[in-house]
Amino acid sequence: MFERLRHFIDSLTGPAAPGPLLSEDYRVAIIALCLQVMEADGIVSAAEQAVMRQKVMEAYQLDAPTFEALLAAGESAESVAIDYFRFTSEIKRHLDEDQCVALIGMLWEIVYADGSRSEMEDHVIWRVADLLGVSGRDRIMKRQEAARTHEHAEDDSSLVQQ
């Protein structure tokens, strides 16, 4: 009886779209969130893409071909996503609290890569941090760290130009 009810409900809503590689590798979910943060302000800059590539490859010790495969899967997963929960729940199964805080720091690094921070980027990171169980205090500390790092990078580049 339950099976018939499930079949009926499935016929009304259609089959669930499986997420590409999502259940196979949590790093796909991480890349999908990075992409969503980059797209939040409507502009995906080359600087943001470069920082995402560098930070993800360093954090998860990826070689270029592995990163490219995960990126393709992340783009596919992100394009059909309707919320952040699908990604954050997968990530929470694989990362501990400190790793989730570090992920929020990485997302802030991506935000500051293009030299500006938008209200939409703030909102995306706030939601992601909340779903990952990262405290407001840790989220703000990571934002401030990324802002300071970006500020120092700008100071260093202006010294080189002089």
UniProtKB/TrEMBL annotation:
Occurrences of domain Co-chaperone DjlA N-terminal (ranges): 28-143
Compositionally biased region (Basic and acidic residues): 143-155
Residue numbers spanned by region Disordered: 143-162
Protein name: Co-chaperone DjlA N-terminal domain-containing protein
Source organism (scientific name): Xaviernesmea rhizosphaerae
